[in-house]
Write a structure and sequence with these properties.
The protein is of the alpha+beta class and about 290 residues long. The protein folds into 3 domains: about 15-60, no CATH class; about 70-190, CBS-domain, CATH 3.10.580.10; about 205-294, Uridine Diphospho-n-acetylenolpyruvylglucosamine Reductase, domain 3. About 35% of the residues lie in helices and about 20% in strands. The strands form 3 sheets. It has a 5-stranded antiparallel beta sheet with strand order 8-9-12-11-10, covered by helices on one side. The chain has a 4-stranded mixed beta sheet with strand order 1-7-6-5. Strand 10 (about 265) and strand 11 form a beta hairpin. Helix 2 (about 40-60) runs antiparallel to helix 6. The protein is globular and about 55 Å long. The relative contact order is 0.10.
Amino acid sequence: MSDISDGPSGAARRAQNNESKKTFFKKLFTSKEPSKTEAEEQSNKDDLTKLASFTSDSIQGQVGIGKLKVEDVAIPRAEIVSVQFDMALDNLIDVFRESGLTRLPVFEGTLDTPIGMVHLKDLALKHGFSKTSITLDLRSMVRPVLFAPPSMPILVLLQKMQSERIHMALVVDEYGGVDGLATLEDLIETMIGEIEDEHDLEEDALWINERPGVILAQAKAPLIEFQDFIGQLLVDIDEDDEIDTLGGLVSQLCGHVPVRGEVIIHPSGVEFEVLDADLRRIKRLRVSLPNDNV
Protein backbone atom coordinates (compact mmCIF):
# COMPACT_ATOMS: atom_id res chain seq x y z
CA MET A 1 0.00 0.00 0.00
CA SER A 2 1.47 3.40 -0.93
CA ASP A 3 1.83 6.25 1.54
CA ILE A 4 -0.63 9.16 1.28
CA SER A 5 0.87 12.55 2.09
CA ASP A 6 -1.09 14.64 4.54
CA GLY A 7 0.90 17.83 4.02
CA PRO A 8 3.52 19.71 6.04
CA SER A 9 1.56 19.49 9.29
CA GLY A 10 1.35 15.69 9.02
CA ALA A 11 5.06 15.46 8.23
CA ALA A 12 5.86 17.56 11.27
CA ARG A 13 3.75 15.31 13.49
CA ARG A 14 5.46 12.19 12.14
CA ALA A 15 8.90 13.72 12.68
CA GLN A 16 7.96 14.64 16.26
CA ASN A 17 6.60 11.12 16.92
CA ASN A 18 9.70 9.47 15.47
CA GLU A 19 11.99 11.61 17.62
CA SER A 20 9.89 10.81 20.69
CA LYS A 21 10.16 7.07 19.99
CA LYS A 22 13.93 7.27 19.53
CA THR A 23 14.36 9.19 22.78
CA PHE A 24 12.14 6.80 24.72
CA PHE A 25 13.78 3.59 23.52
CA LYS A 26 17.25 5.04 24.03
CA LYS A 27 16.29 5.78 27.63
CA LEU A 28 14.65 2.40 28.09
CA PHE A 29 17.59 0.30 26.94
CA THR A 30 20.22 2.29 28.82
CA SER A 31 18.39 2.16 32.15
CA LYS A 32 16.26 -0.93 32.12
CA GLU A 33 18.01 -2.92 34.86
CA PRO A 34 16.50 -3.56 38.28
CA SER A 35 17.52 -0.53 40.30
CA LYS A 36 19.26 -0.06 43.59
CA THR A 37 17.37 3.06 44.73
CA GLU A 38 13.69 3.95 45.01
CA ALA A 39 14.09 6.73 42.45
CA GLU A 40 15.65 4.38 39.90
CA GLU A 41 13.02 1.71 40.59
CA GLN A 42 10.23 4.20 39.98
CA SER A 43 11.95 5.38 36.79
CA ASN A 44 12.14 1.82 35.44
CA LYS A 45 8.50 1.22 36.36
CA ASP A 46 7.50 4.38 34.51
CA ASP A 47 9.53 3.33 31.45
CA LEU A 48 7.79 -0.03 31.17
CA THR A 49 4.38 1.58 31.73
CA LYS A 50 5.13 3.96 28.86
CA LEU A 51 6.29 1.02 26.77
CA ALA A 52 3.03 -0.86 27.26
CA SER A 53 1.05 2.26 26.36
CA PHE A 54 3.27 2.98 23.36
CA THR A 55 3.13 -0.55 21.94
CA SER A 56 -0.65 -0.73 22.45
CA ASP A 57 -1.10 2.41 20.37
CA SER A 58 1.59 1.73 17.77
CA ILE A 59 0.68 -1.83 16.76
CA GLN A 60 -3.04 -1.37 16.22
CA GLY A 61 -2.56 -1.05 12.48
CA GLN A 62 -0.21 -4.02 12.10
CA VAL A 63 -2.01 -7.01 10.65
CA GLY A 64 -1.59 -10.22 12.62
CA ILE A 65 0.60 -8.90 15.42
CA GLY A 66 -1.98 -9.91 18.00
CA LYS A 67 -1.86 -13.49 16.73
CA LEU A 68 1.87 -13.94 17.26
CA LYS A 69 2.86 -16.40 19.96
CA VAL A 70 6.00 -16.58 22.09
CA GLU A 71 7.19 -19.55 20.03
CA ASP A 72 7.19 -17.30 16.94
CA VAL A 73 9.81 -14.92 18.34
CA ALA A 74 11.78 -16.99 20.86
CA ILE A 75 15.38 -18.07 20.36
CA PRO A 76 15.36 -21.89 20.02
CA ARG A 77 16.91 -24.03 22.75
CA ALA A 78 19.90 -24.97 20.58
CA GLU A 79 20.91 -21.30 20.32
CA ILE A 80 20.57 -20.38 24.01
CA VAL A 81 23.85 -19.33 25.61
CA SER A 82 23.65 -20.32 29.29
CA VAL A 83 26.00 -21.00 32.19
CA GLN A 84 26.29 -23.46 35.06
CA PHE A 85 25.78 -21.91 38.53
CA ASP A 86 29.22 -23.01 39.76
CA MET A 87 31.67 -22.02 37.04
CA ALA A 88 35.05 -20.32 37.26
CA LEU A 89 35.13 -16.53 37.05
CA ASP A 90 37.51 -16.46 34.07
CA ASN A 91 35.31 -18.91 32.16
CA LEU A 92 32.20 -16.83 32.87
CA ILE A 93 33.94 -13.68 31.65
CA ASP A 94 34.90 -15.50 28.45
CA VAL A 95 31.27 -16.53 27.84
CA PHE A 96 30.09 -12.92 28.23
CA ARG A 97 32.85 -11.63 25.97
CA GLU A 98 32.45 -14.21 23.21
CA SER A 99 28.65 -14.10 23.13
CA GLY A 100 28.36 -10.32 23.31
CA LEU A 101 25.38 -10.73 25.66
CA THR A 102 24.74 -8.88 28.92
CA ARG A 103 22.35 -11.45 30.44
CA LEU A 104 22.81 -15.20 30.64
CA PRO A 105 20.44 -17.86 31.96
CA VAL A 106 21.90 -19.82 34.89
CA PHE A 107 21.12 -23.50 35.38
CA GLU A 108 21.94 -26.23 37.86
CA GLY A 109 22.62 -29.59 36.27
CA THR A 110 20.93 -29.05 32.89
CA LEU A 111 19.17 -26.22 31.09
CA ASP A 112 15.86 -27.81 32.16
CA THR A 113 16.63 -26.81 35.79
CA PRO A 114 17.18 -23.05 35.49
CA ILE A 115 17.61 -20.94 38.62
CA GLY A 116 17.54 -17.46 37.09
CA MET A 117 19.88 -15.25 35.10
CA VAL A 118 23.13 -13.43 35.77
CA HIS A 119 23.74 -9.89 34.54
CA LEU A 120 27.11 -8.65 33.36
CA LYS A 121 26.72 -5.49 35.45
CA ASP A 122 26.26 -7.48 38.66
CA LEU A 123 29.34 -9.55 37.88
CA ALA A 124 31.42 -6.43 37.20
CA LEU A 125 30.31 -4.69 40.39
CA LYS A 126 30.97 -7.70 42.58
CA HIS A 127 34.05 -9.29 41.04
CA GLY A 128 35.38 -6.99 38.32
CA PHE A 129 36.93 -8.52 35.22
CA SER A 130 40.12 -9.94 36.67
CA LYS A 131 40.91 -13.25 35.00
CA THR A 132 41.08 -15.58 37.97
CA SER A 133 40.09 -19.21 38.23
CA ILE A 134 38.08 -18.87 41.44
CA THR A 135 34.81 -20.78 41.33
CA LEU A 136 31.70 -18.68 41.76
CA ASP A 137 28.35 -19.64 43.21
CA LEU A 138 26.08 -17.64 40.95
CA ARG A 139 23.05 -18.39 43.10
CA SER A 140 24.06 -15.42 45.23
CA MET A 141 23.65 -12.96 42.35
CA VAL A 142 21.01 -14.46 40.05
CA ARG A 143 17.99 -12.42 39.07
CA PRO A 144 14.60 -14.02 38.41
CA VAL A 145 13.33 -14.95 34.96
CA LEU A 146 9.79 -15.47 33.72
CA PHE A 147 8.45 -18.75 32.38
CA ALA A 148 6.07 -18.79 29.43
CA PRO A 149 4.41 -21.54 27.38
CA PRO A 150 5.07 -21.48 23.63
CA SER A 151 1.40 -20.66 22.94
CA MET A 152 1.34 -17.48 25.05
CA PRO A 153 0.57 -14.37 22.92
CA ILE A 154 3.56 -12.03 22.83
CA LEU A 155 1.42 -9.13 24.04
CA VAL A 156 0.55 -11.11 27.17
CA LEU A 157 4.23 -11.77 27.83
CA LEU A 158 4.99 -8.11 27.27
CA GLN A 159 2.42 -7.20 29.93
CA LYS A 160 3.97 -9.73 32.35
CA MET A 161 7.40 -8.22 31.76
CA GLN A 162 5.92 -4.81 32.47
CA SER A 163 4.14 -5.80 35.67
CA GLU A 164 7.02 -7.85 37.11
CA ARG A 165 9.86 -5.74 35.65
CA ILE A 166 11.69 -8.83 34.36
CA HIS A 167 13.16 -8.68 30.87
CA MET A 168 13.93 -12.35 30.15
CA ALA A 169 11.57 -15.30 29.80
CA LEU A 170 12.32 -18.98 29.30
CA VAL A 171 9.87 -20.84 27.06
CA VAL A 172 8.84 -24.14 28.68
CA ASP A 173 6.87 -27.06 27.31
CA GLU A 174 4.10 -28.98 29.07
CA TYR A 175 6.66 -31.18 30.83
CA GLY A 176 8.69 -28.27 32.17
CA GLY A 177 11.52 -28.61 29.68
CA VAL A 178 13.08 -25.43 28.28
CA ASP A 179 12.28 -24.94 24.58
CA GLY A 180 13.58 -21.43 24.02
CA LEU A 181 14.21 -17.94 25.34
CA ALA A 182 12.61 -14.54 24.72
CA THR A 183 13.71 -11.10 25.87
CA LEU A 184 12.02 -7.74 26.04
CA GLU A 185 14.12 -6.61 23.10
CA ASP A 186 12.97 -9.61 21.03
CA LEU A 187 9.33 -8.65 21.59
CA ILE A 188 9.85 -5.00 20.78
CA GLU A 189 11.87 -5.74 17.63
CA THR A 190 9.07 -8.03 16.43
CA MET A 191 6.64 -5.12 16.64
CA ILE A 192 8.69 -2.10 15.57
CA GLY A 193 11.73 -3.48 13.79
CA GLU A 194 15.31 -4.19 14.76
CA ILE A 195 16.90 -2.04 17.47
CA GLU A 196 20.49 -1.30 16.55
CA ASP A 197 23.20 -1.27 19.20
CA GLU A 198 26.81 -0.17 19.29
CA HIS A 199 27.95 -3.45 17.73
CA ASP A 200 25.70 -3.16 14.69
CA LEU A 201 27.17 -2.05 11.39
CA GLU A 202 26.21 1.22 9.79
CA GLU A 203 23.76 0.64 6.96
CA ASP A 204 26.34 1.50 4.26
CA ALA A 205 29.33 -0.19 5.94
CA LEU A 206 30.24 -3.62 4.63
CA TRP A 207 32.64 -4.31 7.51
CA ILE A 208 34.35 -2.64 10.44
CA ASN A 209 37.24 -3.59 12.71
CA GLU A 210 35.84 -4.63 16.08
CA ARG A 211 39.32 -5.09 17.55
CA PRO A 212 42.70 -6.18 16.16
CA GLY A 213 42.23 -9.36 14.16
CA VAL A 214 38.43 -9.36 14.51
CA ILE A 215 36.07 -7.89 11.92
CA LEU A 216 32.30 -7.40 11.95
CA ALA A 217 31.03 -7.89 8.42
CA GLN A 218 27.80 -7.95 6.50
CA ALA A 219 27.23 -11.27 4.74
CA LYS A 220 26.54 -9.37 1.51
CA ALA A 221 30.10 -8.00 1.46
CA PRO A 222 31.77 -8.76 -1.91
CA LEU A 223 34.18 -11.63 -1.38
CA ILE A 224 36.91 -10.29 -3.67
CA GLU A 225 37.02 -6.94 -1.85
CA PHE A 226 37.04 -8.63 1.56
CA GLN A 227 39.93 -10.88 0.54
CA ASP A 228 41.88 -7.80 -0.54
CA PHE A 229 41.11 -6.12 2.79
CA ILE A 230 42.42 -8.98 4.95
CA GLY A 231 45.20 -9.97 2.57
CA GLN A 232 44.04 -13.60 2.58
CA LEU A 233 42.79 -15.75 -0.29
CA LEU A 234 39.64 -17.58 0.82
CA VAL A 235 38.63 -19.30 -2.44
CA ASP A 236 40.54 -21.01 -5.22
CA ILE A 237 40.80 -19.16 -8.49
CA ASP A 238 38.57 -21.82 -10.11
CA GLU A 239 35.81 -21.08 -7.58
CA ASP A 240 36.14 -17.32 -7.84
CA ASP A 241 33.20 -16.95 -10.25
CA GLU A 242 30.91 -19.23 -8.26
CA ILE A 243 30.94 -17.35 -4.93
CA ASP A 244 30.23 -13.63 -4.88
CA THR A 245 29.73 -12.76 -1.21
CA LEU A 246 31.14 -13.54 2.20
CA GLY A 247 27.85 -15.14 3.22
CA GLY A 248 27.94 -17.36 0.15
CA LEU A 249 31.39 -18.57 1.11
CA VAL A 250 30.30 -19.43 4.67
CA SER A 251 27.20 -21.28 3.46
CA GLN A 252 29.32 -23.31 1.05
CA LEU A 253 31.84 -24.15 3.77
CA CYS A 254 29.22 -25.62 6.11
CA GLY A 255 26.89 -27.00 3.43
CA HIS A 256 23.74 -25.27 4.75
CA VAL A 257 22.44 -21.92 5.95
CA PRO A 258 24.00 -21.71 9.43
CA VAL A 259 22.12 -20.55 12.50
CA ARG A 260 23.00 -17.65 14.77
CA GLY A 261 25.91 -18.56 17.03
CA GLU A 262 27.32 -21.21 14.71
CA VAL A 263 31.08 -21.02 14.12
CA ILE A 264 32.59 -22.15 10.81
CA ILE A 265 36.36 -22.54 10.44
CA HIS A 266 37.97 -21.98 7.04
CA PRO A 267 40.87 -24.30 6.07
CA SER A 268 43.15 -21.25 6.33
CA GLY A 269 42.27 -20.84 10.01
CA VAL A 270 39.91 -17.88 9.54
CA GLU A 271 36.88 -18.28 11.82
CA PHE A 272 33.39 -17.10 10.87
CA GLU A 273 30.84 -16.66 13.68
CA VAL A 274 27.25 -16.11 12.57
CA LEU A 275 25.84 -13.11 14.45
CA ASP A 276 22.53 -12.85 12.62
CA ALA A 277 20.70 -15.12 10.19
CA ASP A 278 17.24 -16.29 9.26
CA LEU A 279 16.02 -19.49 7.61
CA ARG A 280 17.10 -18.34 4.16
CA ARG A 281 20.32 -16.40 4.51
CA ILE A 282 23.15 -15.16 6.70
CA LYS A 283 23.03 -11.46 7.59
CA ARG A 284 26.03 -10.58 9.80
CA LEU A 285 29.31 -12.27 10.67
CA ARG A 286 32.20 -11.90 13.07
CA VAL A 287 35.44 -12.82 11.29
CA SER A 288 38.46 -13.76 13.41
CA LEU A 289 41.80 -13.89 11.62
CA PRO A 290 44.64 -16.25 12.57
CA ASN A 291 47.36 -14.66 14.68
CA ASP A 292 49.78 -14.49 11.77
CA ASN A 293 47.28 -12.36 9.80
CA VAL A 294 46.75 -9.78 12.58
